[in-house]
Each structure stands twice: as structure tokens, then as C-alpha cells.
Design goal:
With 549 residues, the chain is mainly α. It has 30 helices and no strands.
Length: 549
């Protein structure tokens, strides 16, 4: 953009630093281990106990039949066999055992030992629910929430979870809280979410403890309080909740409510990963990628990303694609990069879509195709990726792959700015500064630059300094110009470093000091600003060495 220094948006994938629940709240709830069968996954029974259960089952004991079904379901002291588990559940169900009916429904829902069939699952769950089985009611609600075997209907999910909650189900209370938190089928209401999560937490539900931590971390329905969030996350982690472990690591990673400690963050991410949490695995990989909490090791990072990706972690897939595209720890392979990014894009990753667009635009791994690149950028932008929005704006500014159009560029920059993009805020300011697609207005320019600067944009800080230097949109002030140049320089913007040198050279806003000017020109040259290098050369020619001392 003429007259304004700007940076091109990077296509590198970034991790959101917002605390989010990593657990999949519905799927985690409907695992067999949470069905009230009396035998939890991982519990072992000796062979004598198995023999006693067989004898009791032979005498028609329904509880024994159900426990044998669970033993075969989980492989506890017998070879895991889903069909045999189903056989024992069927025997108990035929005699009216509601828990066995619910377990048969779970077998059909997941396709264990039978062909996956959501309608059959729903039928068995309904039979169990008719007998008052709360776990079955939770499953029915989950099927409605997922739209599996029935049209998705959050109101029906709420109805069934309320019924289960009335029977004292902590899982149902947690899930009702989840509906209120996300505004699924009901108006979003964080106070109601907190109320239901607390009811569930009182009964010891680890996911509810984790969820309360999330509300405090995000300031939803309560004043944001990272220390309280940590307290709740630790309660959940004490109950082996992997999501909470990962969230504790995140608080240490960003130093929220605690002193920033990458080592502790990585230790908690490792705990989450050991518990099978794909988000934890992904974050361990990030630690090795950035060398935070451990020595930087792209090979180890890639190994962890692969572990996370094997569990369906989309973020990890994007990192793997990025590593192949940039040759981090592996030889550059655009074909493999595209393969992994397409996998992530198929799972709705806006970041992957944006990177696929970058590969098409650069013609890496695929024939160069600006039209396809723009299509992918637009897909990412529609899903809320502010960097893709900003990139589209830049393409319209430069007329790359699309017709040169400042008005369309401004539309995309405004969308990106609304999403929080500091770069887009700067670009809108640049439009008003130069009169691109809008009437030139220095007051609006500096207002947008200030918004970008508040979000850390060094180039926006620099341009605020320029406006004060020239007195455009603000009263002319060299001291204020210098103040903003220093902020931009501290943020690493090289042209600002050169400007500081010029201010000392001419004595604008500061006492004239050739020695200090030389120091700043040297810094600018080292930082890569050609104007700083040029100024340093001219200074040596204009001012004798003795004078510079």
C-alpha cells in the first residue's frame, strides 16, 4: 500500500491460547465404563470369581449375567469377546434386566460385536429407559444431540437428560450444563450452566469439575479468575480427568493465575497424553516444536503430532502438514503436506483450508492456481479464520488472482478486524491514510492504527508515530512520534529503529546526538532495514570519525 509500511500475513499455523475444554463432552460420557453395571473397565476379577459368576448365572441370577457380559466386554480375566458379552447381556435382558438392555444398546451404537445400527441402539436404550435406567436415558439424549439414528434435536436431548438428572445422574446434570453453556436447544445461559455443573460436581463428576474451571478461565457467567480455574482443574485432574490436566498445563504455559513455567506446562501435557488425551499429545508436540519446557526437537514434535493425529486430533494434522511444507524435522514434501492438510480440512479445520490455499497460490506440490487458492482462502474465511480474511483483503489490494478492488479488500479487512485481527486493523488504517477505496481521513486512520497497536501490531505503532511526526489527524508532536517509534522498535519493527536514529540526528523531540543516531542506525542495519544501513553509510561520509565520538 503506497506510503504505508505493512507486513504480509504469515500462513504458519497458530494455536489459540483460549482455555477450551479438550474432552469431547458427549462421547466421553457414553463410554461403557460409565454405565452402572457394577464392573468398571480395568477392574479385574480372579478366575474363582468368574467361575462363581457362571454358577450364579446358570441359576438365573441377572446381576451375574450382566457382570459376565461386562467381563467379556472389557476383557477382565477373560479374553475380550464382544459377541460373548452380547450373549450374556441378551440373556439378562430377556429376563428384564434394564442395565443389560442399555449395554446391548451401547454395543449397537458403537458396532462392537454387531453391525453398527443407531436405530437398534435407540430401541434397546428406550426399553431400558422405560424401566427407569438413567444411563439409557443419557444415551438417548446423546443420540438426539449427535443426530444419530434420529434427526438432531437438542430439545429432545434436554428432555431425556432432565429425566436422567431427576434420577440423580451426575452425567445428565453435566450435559444439561453443556447445553446451556453452548446454547444448544436453549438460549445460552452461563449462570444456568454453572448451576448444573455444580450439581454434577457435588456428585463427583470430573467433567463437571473441569467445566467449572473452564467457566472461570473464560469469564463466562462469573468474573474471570484463573486462580479459581486452577483450583477446579486440579480437583478434576485428581479424578484422572485428562482434559483438566491439559488445561492446567495451558495455565502454566501462558502464566495465567500462576507464574509462567514451560517445564510444568509440559509435565501436565505429558500427564494428559499418558491418559490418552489427544489434545495433551498435540501440546507435548508443540512444546518440542517451540523448545518450551524441553530442548527443541522437531523429530519428537512430529512423533507426538502423529500420535495425536491417530486419535483424530485435527490440530496435530495441521502441524504435520506444516512440518512437511516447511521441512521441519523431515525433508520438504509438499505432496505429504497437502495430504495431511486435506485430512484436516475434511474435518472442518479453517487453518488447514488456509494453508491449502497458500500451497495453491505458491504452486507448491500442486500446479499454481490462484483461483483455487482464493476458493480455499474463502472457505477458511467463512469458517472464521481471520488470517484468511486478511489474506483475501491483501489479494484484492494487489490484484493477485482477482481483479484489483479496494472496496472488496476493505470488506474483508473489516471482517478480519471484527474477528480481532491486528493486521487487518492496521490495513483499514492504511486505507484511510492513503485514501484507498475511501475518502482520505487521517483521524480515522490513526483510530484504526491505535486499535491495531493495542493488539500488538508493531507496524501500526510505527504509523501512529509517522502521523504525529507529520501532524496528520493529530497535533504535530515530535516527542509523541518518538514515543511511538520506540514502542514499534521494541516490538521489533526495523523501520522504526531507523526513525529513532533520524530523530537523534536532527534533534527532533530529543537533544541532537550524532553518537546516539549512529547507534540506532547500526541497530536498524542489523535488523535488516535498508534505510538504516544507508543512513549509517551516509553518516560516516558526512561526519568525520572524530566528530562522531
Amino acid at each position: 500500500m503506497p506510503g504505508i509500511h505493512h507486513t504480509v500475513s504469515s500462513s504458519m499455523h497458530h494455536i489459540s491460547n483460549r482455555i477450551v475444554r479438550i474432552s469431547t463432552c458427549l462421547c466421553a460420557m457414553i463410554l461403557f465404563v460409565q454405565i452402572a453395571t457394577g464392573v468398571a473397565s480395568g477392574t479385574t476379577m480372579n478366575q474363582t470369581k468368574i467361575a462363581q459368576l457362571r454358577q450364579a448365572a446358570a441359576r438365573g441370577n441377572l446381576d451375574a449375567m450382566d457382570k459376565l457380559g461386562n467381563a467379556y466386554l472389557h476383557g477382565n480375566d477373560v479374553v475380550r469377546n464382544y459377541r460373548t458379552a452380547n450373549s450374556w447381556f441378551q440373556r439378562a435382558a430377556a429376563k428384564g434386566n434394564a442395565t443389560a438392555m442399555s449395554n446391548i444398546g451401547a454395543l449397537y451404537e458403537h458396532g462392537y460385536g454387531v453391525h453398527q445400527n443407531y436405530r437398534q441402539a435407540m430401541m434397546w436404550y428406550c426399553r431400558a429407559a422405560d424401566k427407569g435406567n438413567a444411563a439409557a436415558m443419557n444415551h438417548i439424549g446423546a443420540l438426539y444431540a449427535h443426530g444419530q439414528g434420529v434427526p438432531r434435536n437438542y430439545r429432545m436431548a434436554m428432555k431425556w437428560w432432565h429425566e436422567a438428572a431427576g434420577k440423580g445422574s451426575a452425567d445428565a446434570m453435566y450435559l444439561i450444563g453443556w447445553l446451556y453453556e453452548g446454547g444448544h436447544g436453549v438460549p445460552k445461559n452461563y449462570s444456568q450452566a454453572m448451576s448444573w455443573l455444580r450439581k454434577s460436581a457435588v456428585k463427583g463428576n470430573a467433567q463437571a469439575l473441569d467445566g467449572i474451571g473452564d467457566l472461570y478461565a473464560n469469564g463466562q457467567g462469573v468474573r474471570q479468575d484463573y486462580r479459581r480455574a486452577m483450583v477446579w482443574y486440579k480437583k478434576a485432574a485428581a479424578k484422572d480427568n485428562a482434559s483438566a490436566m491439559s488445561n492446567i498445563g495451558t495455565l502454566y504455559y501462558y502464566g495465567r493465575g500462576v507464574r509462567r513455567e514451560y517445564g510444568k506446562a509440559l509435565a501436565w501435557f505429558h500427564k494428559a497424553a499418558a491418559a490418552g488425551n489427544s489434545g495433551g499429545m498435540d501440546l507435548v508436540g508443540l512444546g518440542y516444536c517451540k523448545g518450551q519446557g524441553a530442548h527443541q526437537n522437531y523429530g519428537k514434535a512430529m512423533a507426538w503430532f502423529h500420535k495425536a493425529a491417530a486419535k483424530g486430533n485435527v490440530n496435530a494434522m495441521v502441524f504435520i502438514g506444516t512440518f512437511y511444507a516447511e521441512g521441519r524435522g523431515v525433508p520438504i514434501n509438499y505432496g505429504k503436506a497437502m495430504l495431511w492438510l486435506r485430512k484436516a480440512a475434511a474435518l472442518d479445520s479453517a487453518g488447514a483450508m488456509k494453508l491449502i490455499g497458500s500451497l495453491y497460490y505458491a504452486g507448491k506440490g500442486v500446479p499454481q492456481n490462484s483461483r483455487r487458492a482464493i476458493d480455499w482462502f474463502q472457505k477458511a474465511a467463512v469458517k472464521g479464520d481471520m488470517q484468511a480474511m486478511t489474506t483475501l483483503g491483501e489479494l484484492y489490494v494487489d490484484g493477485r488472482g482477482v481483479e484489483h478492488d479496494y472496496r472488496r479488500a476493505l470488506i474483508w479487512f473489516r471482517k478480519a478486524a471484527s474477528a480481532g485481527s491486528a493486521e487487518a486493523m492496521f490495513c483499514i488504517g492504511a486505507f484511510y491514510n492513503s485514501g484507498l477505496g475511501v475518502r482520505r481521513d487521517y483521524s480515522k486512520a490513526i483510530a484504526w492504527f491505535r486499535r491495531g497497536a493495542a493488539k500488538g501490531s508493531a507496524v501500526a505503532m510505527y504509523n501512529i508515530g509517522r502521523l504525529y511526526y507529520h501532524g496528520q489527524g493529530v497535533p504535530q508532536s515530535y516527542p509523541k512520534a518518538m514515543r511511538w517509534y520506540r514502542k514499534a522498535a521494541a516490538a521489533g519493527y526495523a523501520p522504526a529503529i531507523t526513525c529513532i536514529g533520524q530523530m537523534y540526528f536532527y534533534g527532533f523531540g530529543v537533544s541532537k546526538d550524532i553518537s546516539k543516531a549512529k547507534i540506532w542506525f547500526k541497530k536498524a542495519a542489523v535488523a535488516g532495514d535498508p534505510r538504516g544501513k544507508q543512513a549509517l553509510g551516509e553518516l560516516k561520509e558526512l561526519v568525520p570519525a572524530a566528530t562522531q565520538k
